[in-house]
UniProtKB/TrEMBL annotation:
One Gene Ontology cellular component annotation held by this UniProt entry: membrane
Transmembrane segments: 6-24, 29-46, 52-69, 89-109, 160-182, 188-212, 224-242
NCBIfam families with a match to the protein in the record: TIGR00297 family protein
Sorted UniProt keywords: Membrane, Transmembrane, Transmembrane helix
Family affiliation: Belongs to the TMEM19 family.
Top-level division of the source organism's lineage: Archaea
Taxonomy of the source species: Archaea, Methanobacteriati, Methanobacteriota, Methanomada group, Methanobacteria
PANTHER family: TRANSMEMBRANE PROTEIN 19
Protein name: Cytidylyltransferase family protein
Membrane topology annotation: Multi-pass membrane protein
UniProt-annotated location(s): Membrane
Length: 243
């Protein structure tokens, strides 16, 4: 690693730490959650590049905005999650972090990070974005259980709604658009196809696991989120072989 790259990476780390302090002071993440975010960010900065981290931060800021949207309504009905923890950061960001680290290793060894790992990264972040938006905005309408389509109370594990599904698709599409703008995927149509399909499938997998396993206390929310992003990542990787 040459000196210019090291200095540039360290400057990004300083910015990352500053952002984590702001996020902590706003009580969006607890202290351990901020530390976890910084560690994962450093891995991405020095294994891939800053554009990959920007994609992950776009998800973070979208999720924070969605969480605070209609806060009084959510508080009144006990649906407001409030301050996120390290478990939330890991369950939503671990797979994306792994994809960037492996992509960076591939870049170091072979001179190419490969579309495979990029698509896996985009699939994971698109799923996290789609699921968060579907959950935070979807609670504003009465959902139906994904396995039976029976009406359930807002906030029920495995509940889905047309509003939540639509906003989730828009969110995953935004991640694809950002990936194109930042140069991770050179073709806009491909970026949108990968992000929307992988994000939507991953989000539905999250809901299915929530309805089948989380309601029975076999898995918790973090397990479900992790498996959902893993599913989205696998779908993204499969698309890399197709295209």
């Amino acid at each position: 690693m040459n000196v210019d790259i090291l200095i540039g990476g360290l400057s990004y780390v300083i910015v990352l730490i500053a952002l984590s302090v702001v996020i902590y002071r706003r009580k969006s993440l607890d202290a351990l959650g901020c530390i976890t975010m910084v560690v994962m960010g450093i891995i991405i900065i020095f294994s891939a590049n800053i554009n990959w981290l920007i994609i992950l931060f776009l998800f973070l800021f979208i999720s924070l905005i969605a969480t605070r949207y209609k806060k009084p309504y959510k508080l009144e009905r006990g649906l407001y999650e409030g301050q996120r923890t390290a478990k939330n950061v890991i369950s939503n960001g671990l797979i994306a972090c792994i994809m960037s680290a492996i992509g960076g290793l591939s870049l170091f060894l072979f001179g190419d990070s490969g579309l495979l790992f990029t698509c896996g990264f985009i699939g994971a972040v698109s799923t996290a974005t789609s699921d968060t938006l579907a959950s935070e905005i979807g609670v504003l309408r009465q959902p139906r259980l994904i396995t039976t389509l029976k009406k359930v109370e807002p906030g029920t594990d495995g509940g889905i709604s047309p509003l939540g599904t639509l906003i989730g698709i828009i969110g995953s599409g935004f991640i694809g658009l950002s990936a194109f703008v930042l140069g991770l995927i050179p073709n806009l149509a491909l970026a949108l196809i990968i992000s929307i399909i992988s994000g939507t499938i991953g989000c539905f997998m999250d809901s299915i696991l929530g309805a089948v396993l989380e309601q029975k206390k076999i898995l918790n929310n973090e397990h479900v989120n992790l498996l959902g992003t893993f599913t989205g990542s696998i779908i993204g990787i499969l698309f890399s072989f197709i295209f």
